[in-house]
Design brief:
By secondary structure, the protein is mostly beta strands. It contains 1 helix and 62 strands. The strands form 17 sheets. Strands 2, 5, 6, 8, 9 and 10 form a 6-stranded mixed sheet that branches. A hairpin with a 2-residue loop joins strand 57 and strand 58. The radius of gyration is 27 Å and the shape is globular.
């Protein structure tokens, strides 16, 4: 029987300012398909045939207009109540926070920001000295890589709306020279966006990275006692000019699967301290029946450093251990200068209420999980994301957060609470954060609820195999937006999910119409590159992926077990079994085909690239090749077909023992040196002595 339409929720009155848009919506019941026709002042509006209607930018003459909708099907029609539009006069812009003076080193960028009140839409025009800067149409402006000649330049902005304009005070840019010991690598892949870029490398160039002048110059051993391996799966971290024992040193921090953290003098190789994170009568964990991390599990995830925490700075580390049949996961905080525990380590435990099942909870079992993904430190909070041991059920997708000052747990989220799997693997990559305080993760194969609620979210809050945006407002963790591909269930069933790769937040990009886009990129086993709009990620549609910002099918043959890197409007991927690939960015979109490829094909698990550069010049892409003997490769970032160096070119001189868990590691470049994690320590590469 066909039921005639009826109006369940009426359109509501709207109040907006001149130049803004207003949206009217209706909810209707009745037998599908339902047809909608919106009317303005009782006259049909052309092409307004959806459940919601958004007006064009309103004018003063639109004040008092009424809007209603007629809903019809084969059994009849229903007309909604009329909703009135109120249009207010705009308020002229006023600057509430002026741009501040900025000081940076040569090759770095500087960002100027203004905060403005006034009626939207507001347009921005940044001005350097007296010249308008093209495409500078947002509240913030980031300079290109600075030069010494930029010292003393001034920047201001004019903000305009329909009521008038206002110009800010000028802010001054100070540019200082860069000296050795200028780089810090405090988190996985250099920054919270996970770009893998060190843009302050003034020593290594495309001219001197070759087998005649560059090679292995040292090795920092992490072997202890009679052990034959001490796997370095976590990315080493680097702090320049830290005072240790009364001397200023460049320090490399190395964490091992033997649950030991080392601090080495990065220039001499001297061991400054080492700290075991094993408790009394504890050992490292066995491999839990999974060969992905073997023979022992200790510290897999890349730690994170806060130079301002504690008396000398603090490194935060998650370590796994056991005592008999009892397994432990703990969060530690170590003093950068001494290695001492700053506070009592926190045992990682958690429960999570099951949505729709009052009184029922999911419980985090430390023995079932390992922290593979790098730690994220954001606004005083440490975020951890958890994977299983292989696909050893049961497991779910847990995200846990902790106060960096107390190490106490402050947030828990389970992204598959009413299902299973959906964990965070990421090949060692960490959650990628944006400037708004959100972060992004790629969940693995697992439960996804194809049935969506009224907000187009999975009805049971199960987000397996998704590109997820996590909000952190008020220290409450929640999925605030997401994207799942149309064949997400098939991918999960075939184990061709997103979870093998890591996310990366791109810098703001401008298209050829002057629009600014906030984007993130991710890829997994299905060989596709997914580019999401962080302001509207696309959610889920069973029929197509049209809502996603950009999808490049087949761009990464073989899939990825790694994460990407970014430099100078190019994104770099290392798919397994294939060449390293560069995709250039134009008009705020990735090229549909690679702009260049390396001559080397990287076997499983492919490669996670890192990039060194001096501002926008001398860009070098670095990548590690797995195998019986590891190989360090470097390529010209402007054309990956040009290989500058690899560690086999000089025979055995530069060779090093491979890390069997190579998908977890990536090279670290700082102050003229490249640090390569291995099975027994860190190989150090740099310019050879004359």
């Amino acid at each position: 029987m066909v039921t005639a339409p009826s109006i369940a929720t009426q359109p509501q009155p709207q109040s907006v300012a001149v130049g803004q848009t207003a949206t009217f919506s209706v909810t209707a019941n009745g037998t599908a398909p339902l047809m909608f026709q919106w009317q303005k002042n009782n006259a049909n509006i052309m092409n307004a045939t959806s459940r919601s209607y958004a007006t064009p930018a309103v004018q003063a003459g639109d004040d008092g207009s009424t809007f209603r909708v007629i809903v019809s099907n084969s059994a009849g029609s229903a007309t909604s109540n009329s909703a009135t539009l109120s249009v207010a006069s705009p308020t002229k812009p006023a600057i509430t926070t002026q741009p501040a003076n900025q000081a940076v080193s040569v090759g770095a960028t500087a960002t100027f920001t203004v905060v403005v009140s006034g009626t939207a839409p507001l347009t921005y025009q940044w001005i350097q000295a007296t010249t308008n800067i093209p495409n500078s149409n947002s509240p913030s402006f980031t300079t290109p890589a600075t030069k010494a000649s930029d010292n003393g330049e001034t920047f201001k902005v004019t903000v305009t709306n329909s009521a008038g304009s206002v110009t800010s005070n000028p802010a001054t840019l100070t540019v200082t020279s860069v000296s050795s010991g200028s780089a810090n690598v405090l988190t996985y892949h250099n920054d919270n966006a996970r770009t893998g870029l060190n843009a302050k490398e003034t020593i290594l160039t495309t001219g001197n990275v070759n087998s005649s002048t560059f090679g292995k110059i040292g090795f920092f051993s992490t072997l202890e006692g009679s052990a034959s391996v001490a796997l370095v799966d976590a990315e080493p971290l680097y702090v320049s000019r830290l005072t240790v024992a009364g001397a200023s040193r460049n320090v490399l921090y190395v964490a091992t699967e033997h649950d030991t953290v080392f601090a080495f003098d990065a220039d001499t190789g001297a061991q400054l301290w080492k700290t075991s994170l094993l408790g009394t009568n504890e050992t490292t964990s066995d491999n839990r029946g999974c060969g992905q991390v073997a023979p022992e599990i200790g510290i897999t995830a890349t730690p994170v450093i806060d130079l301002k925490a504690g008396p000398h700075g603090t490194i935060f580390v998650v370590a796994m251990s056991k005592n008999g049949s009892n397994y432990f996961q703990r969060l530690h905080a170590l003093d950068l200068a001494t290695g001492a525990e700053i506070t009592t380590p926190t045992a990682i435990q958690a429960t999570f209420p099951l949505p729709g099942h009052a009184g029922q909870i999911a419980t985090f079992d430390p023995s079932q999980y390992k922290e593979r993904s790098a730690l994220l430190l954001l606004d005083g909070v440490i975020y951890t994301t958890w994977a299983s041991h292989c696909d050893n059920d049961p497991y779910q997708g847990w995200i846990l957060s902790y106060s960096e000052s107390t190490l106490q747990q402050i947030g828990v989220l389970n992204v598959t609470p009413n299902g299973g799997r959906g964990a965070f693997w990421g090949a060692g990559a960490g959650p990628a954060a944006d400037p708004s305080g959100n972060f992004y993760v790629l969940s693995g194969n697992g439960t996804f609820d194809d049935t969506l609620d009224a907000n187009l979210f999975p009805v049971n809050r199960d987000f397996g195999n998704g590109f997820l945006q996590i909000t952190t407002v008020g220290n409450v963790l929640a999925v605030s937006d997401y994207f799942n591909m149309q064949d997400t269930d098939t991918e999960s069933g075939n184990d061709t999910d997103l979870g093998s790769g890591g996310p990366m937040v791109l810098p703001d990009l401008t298209d050829n119409r002057g629009n600014t886009w906030h984007l993130a990129v991710g890829a997994g086993k299905d060989g596709r590159i997914y580019v999401v709009n962080r302001d509207m990620m696309g959610k889920f549609n069973t029929s197509n992926d049209n809502a996603i910002y950009q999808e490049l099918d087949g761009a990464l043959p073989g899939g990825v077990w790694s994460t990407s890197a970014y430099f100078n409007n190019a994104v770099y991927f290392g798919p397994q079994g294939n060449a390293l690939r560069a995709f250039t960015i134009s008009n705020a979109k990735l090229s549909t085909a690679p702009s260049s490829e390396s001559p080397t094909a990287f076997g499983y698990p492919g490669a996670t690239p890192s990039v060194s550069a001096n501002g926008t010049s001398n860009g070098i892409v670095w990548a590690m090749e797995n195998g019986g003997t590891g190989v360090l490769h470097s390529y010209d970032a402007t054309n990956l077909a040009t290989e500058l160096y690899n560690s086999n070119q000089a025979g055995t001189r530069d060779q090093y023992p491979t890390n069997g868990n190579c998908k977890f590691v990536t090279p670290v470049i700082a102050d003229g040196k490249v640090f390569v994690p291995t099975a027994t320590g860190v190989a150090v590469f740099g310019l050879l002595s004359p």
